[in-house]
Amino acid sequence: MSTIKDIIVEYYRIPLPELVSDAKHGVHTHFEVPIVKVITDDNRVGVGYTYTGGFGGRSVAKLIQIELRNALLGKDPANVEHLWEVMQTAVHYLGHGGLASFAISAVDIALWDLRAKKAGEPLYKLLGGSSNEVFTYGGAIDLSFPLPKLLAHHKKYLDMGLKAIKIKVGQKTLAEDIERVKALREMIGPDTLFMVDANMSWTVEQAIKAAREFLKYDILFLEEPIDPNNYEGHKIIADRTGMAIAAGENLRTPMEFAHLIKYGQIGFPQPDASNVGGITGFMKVAAISHVNNLPVSAHGMQELHVSLLAALPNKGYLEMHSFPIDQYTTRPLVIDKKTGYAIAPEEPGTGVTFDFEKLAPFKEEF
Ligand SMILES: [Mg+2]
């Protein structure tokens, strides 16, 4: 048995290539990436990480450095699921869900990296997957893009080979949203999948009105129309309109997914391993989804989620997100141009190997 000798945390704050905005969080200028290195007494290193939209990353890094590190030193890193419970218990009283889930996620991903490297397996195979292909869509934080720029941006996804796109909605008026949805549908044609994302900006009534309009343009799902805590609201929107609802990026525990699926009747759960408890949390959500006959899609961190979705019998849609974490790794997301599928990495471990030279200019104290 080996033990955890040290846990090192680094904090990076990376400027976005351009300012982007959505209907809830306003303008994004940076994204943050706290990176965790779990080091064993036999000198193996597992690397994990989480990310934020530019706020709170230092606090996450501190929580890992002080609380989670103390909880895990000397423990056997092979007991990943047990250590997940140890971490949950260590910070439960002060941070059930919320910030704590980001911190636990980063460490959990590092533990899975150790496990997969030790097994000599790529993550998707270790988790039981048989195919490395994942259906992928282009998702942009494009609410403030003028229409010509919006069209040009999504044309780029099609040129890459992707067969699905998603845009932000939640403009000042519904008429503006409809105009953009209509223009996009005309550009992409009838065979490209098309989704929209309101980033929790509406009331149930507003969402019902919008969903009825969007259905005319063959929208696959409406993402986060309302506050995610309003579980029943999701069901009301779906029941009243027939529109499938997607949500999950703002849920922080597998139990919250269980509730949103049970009471909200969502059609497309979208866990994010960076904030739902890492790979352990993601796989719990995948199991809950499976027994409810739902596909699992993912939000953000496409460089890792490609392996998680590839592992699932109920794999849904991989989001190619606008925070380009993958550009700071040695293997940015690989898309098969012919099929439009993303391809999971074959190297042992999570397959997310950071390019620390490229990251170096963005390292900051926390
Ligand atoms: Mg979203």
From TrEMBL:
InterPro entries the record matches: AHGA_cycloisomerase, Enolase-like_C_sf, Enolase-like_N, Enolase_C-like, Mandel_Rmase/mucon_lact_enz_CS, Mandelate_racemase_C, Mandelate_racemase_N_dom, RHMD-like
SMART domains linked to this entry: MR_MLE
Entry keyword annotation includes Metal-binding: yes
GO terms of biological process kind: amino acid catabolic process; galactose catabolic process
Span of domain Mandelate racemase/muconate lactonizing enzyme C-terminal: 148-244
Example of a GO MF term: isomerase activity
Pfam families the record matches: MR_MLE_C, MR_MLE_N
Keywords per UniProt: Magnesium, Metal-binding
CDD domains on file: MR_like (cd03316)
Cofactor(s) the protein needs: Mg(2+)
SUPFAM superfamilies reported for this sequence: Enolase C-terminal domain-like, Enolase N-terminal domain-like
Keyword Repeat on entry: no
UniProt-recorded name of the protein: Mandelate racemase/muconate lactonizing enzyme
Lineage: Bacteria, Bacillati, Mycoplasmatota, Mollicutes, Acholeplasmatales
